[in-house]
Write a structure and sequence with these properties.
Strand content of chain C: under 5%
Chains: A alpha+beta (595), B mainly alpha (325), C mainly alpha (300)
Number of domains of chain C: 1
Number of strands of chain B: 0
Largest sheet of chain C: none
Order of helices and strands of chain C: HHHHHHHHHHHH
Distance between the termini of chain C: 41 Å
Helix content of chain C: over 70%
Order of helices and strands of chain B: HHHHHHHHHHHHHH
Distance between the termini of chain B: 14 Å
CATH architecture of chain C: Orthogonal Bundle
Structural class of chain B: mainly alpha
CATH topology of chain C: MetI-like fold
Radius of gyration of chain B: 24 Å
CATH superfamily of chain C: MetI-like
Structural class of chain C: mainly alpha
Oligomer: heterotrimer
Strand content of chain B: under 5%
Chain lengths: 595, 325, 300
């Protein structure tokens, strides 16, 4: 017994220790700022080919100005935590535009410099904050736009990140379909309320089948954030306002754009008469006010919910067609945020026994189809989990005569190649997404398909961690901006399927808001080199990579010291030599004298 | 009674294992770099306050021991949590729904058919040892055992789906069809099940065959076989009455292990054929980092499997009086 | 035997000859089994390919050498993949990864399993109980889902796959080694060893391990088979290292490129056949080894 226990316990303890050790190993920081050279790892998103290939193109371009980049394809699960913790130096991937340019707030305001907030690049500038704050309170769109241009200008001077390009949107339809609207983000997107009610088949087919890669994760318009859930929401529910092809606001269920009081804190919507829910109940202003109250009360997390929660103070419906909303403060995008929220029926959603919370259990539609009642162009008809969702047309929709199809089906097909094949065979009519780059040529060449082309909402950027040296030096950021050839990046990175973004709010997507005279950094490697040289980032050891400013400075200092030491040495030698010569001459002279 | 002691002992050990499973389940997914808001948000960024609200709703801002107690409490009430991916949908309703049904039918039928084929053919091969039949079946089994399941699935899709076009390549039913009666529905369903069913059966049958064959050969060396032959019993009687019955004993414990597969699902096959089952759910949940779903599946599997093993222990105890642990 | 030679050296020498004889006997029996020889040939074949990969492969497995989805021809023996890489070269280089992962993972699995089995079986008591409960847990939970879950914790990469395979796979070896250790513990030579005062470690190392080893070796072949198939499976599902073309990874790319749906058979068939042949090779070796070591299976 005595001999057994120590060994047993030791081995056992070893086993336990080893398992416990594994855990903290995963938590160590990934990135350390470079100590001597301009050499760093750059994170790109591993599943996104464009992110990876653009990154490679950027690495090649930066090599020419003496910056060495190692492209590190990173998985989602590692990428986001590192971004949130600011555990990186430089990264390149796509972020997204929304229907209105709220990203100018989310990406540049100091309050958004936190983990999982709007910005990942630690950019803080009080002057920019002030301009943004003012812009958010301006109800006059023209004035707001001027302020946004100022923000764009200041951002361009600071270069917290380098905007690269907007992805292209290629959408494939079977050739017999027509009537769809092509606008930014494509014919099938949550911004586009026109396609589905207007589309029809020249071959007389009355079923329209859209292929998805996955099911919508929710049927609740209050909880929808993904593209597929939003597509379901916009088919079954309606909004007060919508967008036209230039992303201008147009009235939808409302008769016109909302009226604002002079202080901008009260806005009034007027509804079209005769609006009805799918179960025949009338849709009134009470439902509208209820929707916003519900959003705030439940702290919903839908796409626009945060803006609404931030701004909504109270509301009332003086009559059935008038909805009056009181805001806490004037908000530049109040119309957009409130106008884009899907209106829910008060007589159903106020019953908490039926719908307990805003993100309800998906299986409820099977036991209680009432939860799926909306006012949109289509009505929920059936759901086979994992296979498809079936919607039928709403015969009493407020645009008479529309939709032009009888049935709308969302069909789940896992891979892009299977979806393309299904389109060619006629099993589905289109897919939810832009055609993946590898398949664009194939789709275009197919005799069965028609491919539309516009800009998508994904903008690719090269982001710096503005607090991490050497990226805290604005000149380094500017030099990199000059050193990147955005056209080449689009060619190499996106196989040419992209539009370069010259400013921080792209005019290709937002024609109204974009800065007409942006401060740009055209491709100029010589200028980049000059900037870096002037700023003191020199290549001391001749390996083609520049050393950091402080290293160069230290080196220079050392050189100076060495030079001084050498000078002193020379002087010493010279002094000694002079003394020796004088003494020698003196001795010789004395000798001469003697003789 | 010795039997009772045995059962008590096995029961206690089953409970301990269950306890370990519950604890492991909780901590495993806390170690994971989980950010529910990332899964929830999907394509777009959500405002910071909204994220904080979400984290609070999932109870992830509480201290760890509080979360553990809540977890235990929920578990006892049958509440397996709420999915990150399918907003607001209870994990229990995701698991115990259509998916379980699909996996059950597929796995149940494949395992059953593979067992029957394996047992019968294994017995015959052992009897005709070293014959052409035996050699052929052994090699066939080794070949199918060596094939990766997903590759077998891909081949079947290629040959029967692409070239011959006789089976559908994905899903459990065709889209948008209306069925006039239950038989039409069943026919379509079974038609879609052909691919995964054949793949799974082929992948299982080799293993069962070899085990059965070895078991029978083992039994042949027993003395009672010689006795039976000396008694003058016909070959068939010897084979089926004595050999097979005794050789099936190891299969009993094997079946208990296979129950795991029944609920864990054939992840590979379901993924390749897009069969809407639990295996596919596991894969999707892993990809989408939907930890509540994984946690729920883990604990359900653990409970079912520990129970099945315990039942197998009981069955074994009754079948084989020699076995006392 | 002179008195001058130290007794210990004599014993060691004897042991050496004993081992050699055992090995030779084993080999003589093994040679008789045609399946065993076939297995050995197949495995050696792949090992040679793995070593000689740079000389055999016509192209760089990462370079874009042609148009995508070309059918097999004399230049591209297995055709090209979706970005124009030569599939034949990728399969050749894939041999290295698959073999490496298989061998390393199974070695670690057996190592871990043996240690746990030895400790558990020899020491008994509460240590044995706890370890067995943990082992039970890992045995009864289905391997692939558990592997997927662990892989999602650890992330992608070859090392992570090896870790995952090891952590999930040690149970079979542990159980077997434990039961063998427990039975050996009761044998007289163990008692004798302890009677003359050897420490536990000495007893384990000198007496128990050599007797457990043959069993572990046979089990090792199965572990290699499991490791290779597990790695192929995990890579296929996307958890492998995208920059190393293991056979499973090649099949993963084939699937995402729609090879099954579009009929690119040359992309699907070769990597799978390689996996199958390599696994069969090890399976044959395991089968023959089993036949020899388990005398009841031999012909009477």
């Amino acid at each position: 017994m005595k001999k057994k226990t120590p060994i047993g316990v030791a081995l056992f303890a070893l086993l336990l220790l080893s398992t416990l050790l594994a855990i903290p190993l995963g938590r160590a920081a990934w990135y350390t700022p470079p100590k001597d050279k301009l050499k760093f790892p750059m994170m790109v998103l591993s599943w996104d080919d464009w992110s990876v290939h653009s990154g490679e193109a950027i690495a090649e371009q930066l090599k020419k100005v003496g910056i060495s980049i190692e492209v590190v394809p990173t998985d989602d699960s590692a990428m986001y935590p590192r971004l949130y913790d600011r555990d990186y130096g430089i990264e390149e991937m796509s972020y997204g535009y929304s229907a209105y340019p709220s990203h100018m707030f989310y990406r540049f305001h100091s309050s958004q410099d936190c983990a999982q907030c709007g910005q990942d690049w630690s950019f803080r500038n009080a002057t920019v904050d002030a301009v943004i704050d003012e812009m958010l309170k301006t109800t006059d769109k023209e004035k707001a736009r001027e302020l946004m241009w100022k923000v764009d200008q200041m951002a361009a001077e600071s270069v917290p990140y380098v905007p690269l390009f907007l992805a292209d949107e290629y959408h494939a339809f079977r050739k017999e379909w027509t009537g769809y609207t092509v606008m930014p983000a494509g014919p099938i997107s949550y911004l586009n309320t026109h396609t589905l009610p207007d589309i029809y088949s020249t071959a007389g087919k009355k079923d329209f089948v859209i292929a998805f890669n996955n099911e919508p994760e929710t049927f609740s318009p209050m909880a929808a954030t993904s593209g597929r859930a939003l597509l379901y929401s916009m088919s079954v529910y309606d909004t007060l306002l919508a967008y036209d092809e230039k992303l201008n606001l147009i009235p939808w269920m409302a008769t016109g754009l909302p009226e604002f009081s002079s202080d901008g804190k009260t806005m009034t919507f007027y509804l079209k008469p005769g609006l009805k829910w799918h179960d025949g109940q009338p849709l009134t202003a009470k439902d509208v006010i209820f929707t916003f109250q519900y959003t705030v009360a439940q702290s919903a997390t839908g796409q626009w919910a945060y803006d609404i929660i931030k701004s909504f103070d109270s509301g009332e419906a003086p009559d059935d067609l008038t909805a009056v909303i009181h805001l806490k403060e004037p908000y530049v995008w109040a119309s957009e945020a409130f106008g884009a929220q899907y209106i829910i029926p008060e007589h159903i959603w106020s019953q908490t026994s039926l719908i307990p919370k805003y993100d309800w259990d998906q299986t409820l539609v099977e036991s209680n189809p009432k939860v799926a009642v909306g006012s949109g162009p289509f009505m929920f008809s059936g759901w086979v989990p994992g296979e498809y969702i079936k919607l039928v047309k709403n015969p009493s929709w407020w645009t008479t005569g529309h939709p032009l199809i009888d049935t709308l089906i969302f069909r789940k097909i896992d891979t892009e190649s299977a979806r393309i094949l299904a389109m060619q065979k006629g099993e589905v009519d289109t897919e939810r997404y832009s055609v993946e780059p590898a398949f664009v040529e194939q789709a275009k060449a197919s005799s069965e398909l028609v491919v539309t082309h516009t800009v998508d909402q994904w903008d690719y950027i090269l982001a710096f961690n503005n607090k991490s040296p050497p990226f805290d030096d604005v000149w380094v950021r500017r030099a990199i901006a000059y050193a990147t050839d955005k056209d080449e990046i689009v060619k190499r990175g996106a196989l040419g399927y992209g539009t370069v973004t010259p400013s921080y709010c792209s005019g290709a997507f937002f024609p109204f808001w974009a800065n007409p005279n942006p401060l740009t950094y055209p491709y100029d490697p010589d200028k980049a080199n000059k900037i870096l040289d002037e700023q003191g980032y020199l290549d001391i050891d001749g390996d083609g990579i520049r050393e950091l400013k402080q290293v160069v400075a230290a080196y220079k200092e050392k050189q100076q010291e060495q030079q001084q030491a050498q000078m002193t040495q020379y002087l010493a030698f010279a002094a000694i030599a002079v003394i020796v010569i004088i003494v020698g001459l003196y001795l010789v002279y004395r000798r001469r004298k003697k003789a | 009674m010795v039997m009772r002691d045995y059962l008590l002992k096995r029961g206690a050990s089953a409970l301990v294992t269950l306890g370990l499973a519950v604890v492991l389940n909780f901590f495993l997914f806390r170690i994971m770099p989980g950010d529910p808001t990332r899964t929830v948000v999907g394509d777009f960024r959500v405002a910071p306050e909204a994220r904080k609200i979400l984290i609070h709703q999932f109870g992830l801002d509480q201290p760890l021991w509080v979360q553990f107690l809540l977890y235990l409490q929920n578990l006892l009430m049958g509440n397996l949590g709420v999915s990150f991916q399918y907003r607001g949908t209870a994990v229990a309703s995701i698991i115990f729904g259509r998916r379980l049904f699909n996996t059950f039918i597929l796995m149940g039928s494949s395992i059953a058919v593979a067992l029957i084929i394996g047992i019968v053919v294994g017995t015959i091969a052992a009897w005709k040892r070293e014959s052409k039949f035996d050699v052929f079946t052994v090699i066939f089994s080794l070949v199918t055992y060596s094939m990766p399941v997903f590759w077998l699935g891909m081949l079947i899709i290629l040959v029967f789906g692409y070239y011959l076009g006789s089976i559908p390549i994905a899903g459990t039913i065709s889209v948008g069809l209306t069925y006039s009666n239950i038989f039409e529905y069943a026919a379509d369903y079974l038609h879609h099940m052909t691919g995964p069913f054949v793949t799974l059966t082929l992948s299982f049958v080799g293993y069962y065959f070899i085990i059965m064959r070895d078991s029978i050969l083992d039994v042949f060396t027993e003395d009672y076989m010689l006795t039976a032959k000396a008694k003058g019993l016909s070959d068939r009687k010897i084979l089926f009455r004595h050999a097979m019955r005794n050789a099936t004993l190891p299969m009993v414990s094997l079946i208990a292990v296979e129950v795991t597969y029944l609920f864990g699902g054939a992840t590979m096959t379901e993924t390749v054929f897009s069969w809407y089952g639990i295996g596919r759910l596991i894969y999707e949940a892993v990809v989408m980092a939907d930890y509540p779903v994984l946690q729920g599946i883990f604990i359900v599997m653990a409970v079912l499997v520990i129970t099945a093993n315990f039942c197998a222990d009981i069955a074994y105890a009754f079948l084989d009086p020699r076995i006392r642990y | 035997m002179t008195a001058q030679e130290p007794a210990a050296l004599q014993i060691t020498e004897d042991r050496f000859w004993v081992y050699r004889r055992k090995l030779r006997d084993f080999w003589k029996l093994y040679r008789r089994s045609s399946l065993g020889k076939l297995g050995l040939v197949v495995v050696l074949f792949f090992v040679i390919i793995a070593i000689a990969a740079p000389w055999i492969a016509p192209f760089d497995p990462f370079a874009f050498v042609g148009d995508p989805f070309l059918k097999p021809s004399s230049t591209y023996i297995f055709g090209t993949d979706q970005v124009g890489r030569d599939i034949f070269s990728r399969v050749i280089y894939g041999t290295r990864v698959s073999l490496l992962v298989g061998l390393v993972a199974s070695a670690m699995t057996i190592g871990l399993g043996s240690v746990i089995g030895l400790v558990s079986g020899y020491l008994g008591g509460w240590i044995d109980n706890v370890l067995m409960r943990i082992t039970d847990l890992f045995i009864i939970l289905p391997a692939l889902p558990l592997m997927l879950i662990m892989a999602s914790i650890l992330g992608k990469g070859i090392m992570n796959i090896i870790i995952v395979i090891t952590v999930i796979g040690w149970t079979a070896t542990a159980r077997m080694v434990r039961s063998q250790t427990m039975s050996l513990k009761e044998r007289p030579f163990t008692e004798a060893s302890r009677a003359i005062g050897s420490t536990d470690l000495h007893t384990i190392a000198r007496h128990i391990v050599p007797n457990v080893f043959p069993l572990v070796f046979a089990n090792g072949m199965i572990a290699i088979v499991d490791a290779i198939l597990s790695e192929a499976g995990l890579s296929f599902l996307g958890f492998g290292d995208p920059s190393s073309p293991s056979w499973g990874m090649v099949l993963h790319f084939a699937d995402t490129a729609g090879a099954t749906v579009n009929g690119y058979w040359w992309y699907i068939v070769p990597p799978g056949i390689c996996i199958m042949l390599l696994v069969m090779g090890f399976a044959f070796i395991s089968y023959s080894t089993d036949q020899i070591l388990n005398p009841r299976l031999r012909r009477r």
